[in-house]
Design a protein that fits this description.
mainly alpha; 4 helices; rod-shaped
Length: 265
């Protein structure tokens, strides 16, 4: 088709007027009879189109390719959200600055991709370890290996893991025991002696009935104020313990005297 048009142009330049009219008529017939797409391809050039007159609606689907786009002309607002795939990104072109905070989770990490070099020193806590991890670590240690002193803290210990056999003698002091947490059931028989009791802290409520016997009472510790009125009987008195200095004047009646006792003054 282009060859025909070129030939027509040459004839138009060289032919007499009558022949020019014929050629123009022939071109008109060809233009009218040719499909519009073919006519546009061979009859229109870039200089025939007004700058800025072509809009999105004038473009056919997939008509614009890489060669039609000037370098550095496509920005993020030109790309539909969620339309880019891995194959659209050049390998090795994504760096740290391109990744949003918290964008990489467990699902984005490949198996065995995280090593010790990627973990901040001292950032692993007990909550980051799976159950029985310490047992796995212990079993993988060479014979004779030990844990670094002070490296096993409370979060690493399972509930009930520390028994009496695990506690060194004298290792537990008052600061290790929660206030008010020790009950009678926690104490062995005869575990508490006077050395563990603060002076003056034993009250009446702490004493069992009949717990205070004569050997427990110090000499001269019991005064009249400690004895309930009317509770001293004859059996409580030693022989010849009562003399005239103990009896109030005029308080002994004749009925209280033994038979044959002289009652005259």
């Amino acid at each position: 088709m282009r060859a025909i048009l070129d030939r027509c142009r040459q004839l138009l330049r060289d032919a007499p007027r009558a022949q020019r009219v014929f050629v123009l008529s022939l071109v008109g017939v060809l233009a009218i009879g040719a499909p519009s797409a073919m006519a546009a391809k061979y009859l229109l050039t870039g200089r025939d189109i007004k700058s800025g007159s072509i809009t999105v609606s004038n473009l056919a689907n997939s008509s614009v390719g890489t060669r039609q786009i000037t370098n550095n002309q496509v920005s993020s607002i030109d790309v539909r959200d969620g339309s880019l795939q891995g194959r659209d990104i050049r390998n090795g072109s994504v760096d740290r600055a391109d990744i949003a905070a918290d964008a990489i989770g467990r699902d984005q990490l490949a198996e065995d991709s995280v090593t010790g070099d990627h973990i901040v020193d001292g950032s692993i806590t007990a909550t980051d370890l799976a159950a029985s991890t310490l047992d796995v670590l212990r079993s993988s240690m060479p014979t004779g290996s030990t844990l670094v002193e002070g490296s096993v803290t409370t979060p690493f210990l399972a509930n009930g893991a520390v028994t009496g056999a695990k506690i060194a003698a004298g290792a537990v002091s008052g600061v290790n025991i929660a206030d008010g947490s020790i009950t009678a059931a926690d104490l062995a028989a005869d575990a508490i002696n006077g050395a563990f009791v603060v002076d003056g802290t034993i009250g009446e409520a702490d004493l069992a009935t009949g717990a205070v016997t004569a050997p427990k009472i110090a000499n001269d510790a019991v005064t009249g104020a400690k004895i309930a009125a009317g509770t001293i009987t004859r059996s409580d008195l030693a022989t010849d313990i009562v003399d005239s200095t103990i009896v109030a004047d005029g308080t002994i009646a004749g009925a209280e005297l033994a038979a044959g006792t002289n009652t005259s003054l």
